[in-house]
Design brief:
Blueprint: H1 7-11, H2 14-80, E1 87-92, E2 98-101, E3 116-125, E4 130-140, E5 146-152, H3 154-204, H4 220-252, H5 254-269, H6 275-307, E6 315-318, H7 319-336, E7 340-345, E8 350-353, H8 355-372, E9 378-384, E10 392-398, H9 430-440, E11 444-449, E12 454-460
Parallel strand pairs: 7-9
Antiparallel strand pairs: 1-2, 1-5, 3-4, 4-5, 6-8, 9-10, 10-12, 11-12
Helix pairs in contact: 2-3, 5-6, 6-9, 7-8, 8-9
């Protein structure tokens, strides 16, 4: 069951703050759009009214020029007498005496640019018993007669009021939906983040099997969860390997250390003055100590390769030089055991890597092949260049006893040795080191049947070149 997220805590979350920021930008955008709509609509209607008034003024001026004052008075009276008209007319003498029109007096308002005047006709009147206003233009005729022509603006005022109310509701709904959407988005993101936090708490408590759940949408949080799970897999693998190493070291090194101590203790108990006895004991002790040091050196090399610390120091390496050096070192060893070592270099590929670790990996493969191939056998060291899905491949093949298919994954673990190999010297770390070096170079280690024998290949991917 998901834990409830407190509202106050939710308001302080980054997703909610981001949602709030975008809401603010959205509100500003909506406000600008609504303002433009309002100004465009109301302004257009007002311009239309102004154009209509201008046409009426032009007609009345023509009437005055053609019929004189008497004709103008008759025309104003006629137009003022129309029922349900929203036009306003007023014609006065220089002294203010009304000659014609439908206003009771000249409006007490100051004319603006172009002679236009906005004024209130009455507190209640006009459309729907609302305050009535008018827009008119006035001018002076010859003889100081004054003429005012305008329109009742009550309907336009009502339209403006309705538009303002509607735009306010649109703005309010936008804010409410934006806040609600921000809270929902923040809550959804926080539920997923809380799942990550619960997983980390489980891991900190010692449960390394915990993994971050994924939503399946493939978004940024899913990719983060995938990366975290990959990291946790690596940590679990390293921790498991560390436990296995600790147990294996305690188990596999106890016997040689006990044997070393017993040999030294036996030499001290013996009552002899023969220096050769002590010399032999010291030589055996040195050999045993060398084997222990070799084991610890291999463990350190594996840890160094698995840590990825050398990844920053990778540089172009000519694999052909690495293979030739390993072949030169082990060819005498193979001849001494009665084996044939064939080196086949078919290309000169270059990969980014650590030359020392690559040389150690190839040497380990040759050492294993020589160790387990019977006398008279044949070992092949092959280097190939670019091929399908690979930048290069180093292969060591022998015709020894090989490794059963069901044990090829097992032998890559530390201190794992097959029953047939326990009679020969070794610590079971050779293939573990090779596998760690391959992983450091993003390469794959492949164990295959050589029919008979074993074929081990290090395959470098195309982007390793």
């Amino acid at each position: 069951m998901k834990a409830a997220i407190p509202t106050l805590r939710l308001l302080r979350t980054t997703p909610f703050r981001l949602a709030l920021l975008y809401l603010g930008l959205f509100i500003i955008s909506v406000g600008v759009i609504l303002g433009v709509v309002y100004r465009s609509t109301a302004g257009f209607l007002e311009e239309e009214i102004g154009a209509t008034i201008a046409l009426e003024v032009a007609g009345l001026q023509d009437q005055y020029r053609s019929a004189g004052l008497r004709g103008l008075v008759d025309s104003v009276r006629e137009r003022s007498g129309y029922s349900h008209t929203n036009s306003i007319y007023l014609l006065t003498t220089p002294g203010g005496v009304i000659l014609a029109g439908n206003l009771s007096g000249w409006p007490d308002a100051t004319a603006g640019p172009g002679g236009w005047t906005h004024f209130k006709i009455s507190d209640y009147g006009g459309v729907n018993n609302r305050p009535s206003t008018a827009m008119a233009v006035s001018f002076i005729l010859p003889g100081q007669f004054r003429l005012l022509v305008g329109r009742d603006m009550s309907e336009l005022d009502q339209l403006r009021g309705r538009m303002v109310v509607s735009l306010r509701w649109v703005f309010l709904v936008t804010v409410v939906l934006g806040l609600g959407g921000g809270l929902l988005l923040a809550r959804g993101a926080m539920h997923r983040i809380e799942a990550i936090n619960r997983t980390t708490h489980r891991i900190m408590a010692g449960d390394l099997s915990g993994r971050v759940p994924r939503g399946g949408g493939g978004d940024e949080i899913d990719r983060l969860a995938g990366n975290l799970n990959a990291m946790l897999d690596q940590i679990e693998r390293l921790m498991t390997g560390m436990r296995q190493v600790t147990e294996s070291v305690a188990h596999d090194l106890r016997t040689p250390l006990s044997r070393l101590r017993a040999r030294v203790e036996l030499a001290l108990i013996r009552e002899t003055d023969d220096p050769e006895v002590y010399r032999g004991v010291l030589q055996d002790t040195i050999l045993e100590a060398d084997r222990l040091l070799a084991t610890f050196t291999a463990l350190l090399s594996i840890a160094e390769a698995e840590s990825g610390a050398n990844r920053k120091a990778l540089e172009p390496v000519r694999l052909a030089d690495v293979v030739r050096l390993a072949a030169d070192l082990y060819e005498p060893v193979a001849e001494e055991k009665g084996l044939t070592l064939v080196t086949d270099i078919r290309a000169e590929p270059t990969v980014r890597g650590n030359e020392q670790l690559l040389a150690q990996a190839v040497s380990n493969l040759l050492d294993n092949a020589i160790k387990y191939t019977p006398e008279g056998g044949r070992i092949t060291l092959l280097l190939e260049g670019v091929g399908p899905g690979q930048a290069a491949r180093v292969t060591v093949a022998d015709n020894g006893p090989g490794i059963p298919a069901d044990m090829r994954e097992k032998v890559l673990e530390r201190f794992v040795r097959l029953d047939a190999a326990r009679a020969s010297p070794g610590n079971g770390l050779g293939l573990s080191l090779v596998e760690a070096v391959a992983r450091l170079h993003d390469a794959s280690l492949r164990l295959e049947d050589n029919e008979p024998g074993l074929k081990v290949g290090i395959v470098f991917p195309p982007d390793a070149g």
